[in-house]
Amino acid sequence: MFQHFQYETVKNNWISKEWKFSFFYKGVFYEGMYHGDGQIKWKRTPDVDLEKIEAHIHDLMLYHEFEEHQPPQ
Questions:
Q1: In which element (H, E) is residue 19 found?
Q2: Residues 40-60 pLDDT 10s
Q3: C-alpha separations of 38 from 26, 27, 67, 70, 72 in Å
Q4: Please, are residues 10 and 23 in contact by the beta-carbon 8 Å criterion?
Q5: Nearest residue to 2 (alpha-carbon basis) of 23, 32, 33
Q6: Within a domain: residue 73?
Q7: Does the residue 24 lie in any domain?
Q8: Is residue 72 part of a domain?
Q9: DSSP for 22-45?
Q10: Which Pfam families does this one have (predicted)?
């Protein structure tokens, strides 16, 4: 669905967390901020498939930042 999805931590403290992200979707570059409460702030809001795109971003952030992926020791 996305090409070249990237994210990096901008703010990480006990009060709030924020990540900036970017990706290509259907050949168009998008970027924005993902907040720890799940809110997304766009630099350029997608014209099409907004709900689908936001759902995919939530899934990616949950997988990469909030779920535990360490094998038991």
A1: strand 17-25
A2: 999 999 999 999 999 999 999
A3: 24, 25, 14, 23, 28
A4: no
A5: 23
A6: no
A7: yes
A8: no
A9: EEEETTEEEEEEEETTS-EEESS-
A10: DUF5342 (PF17277)
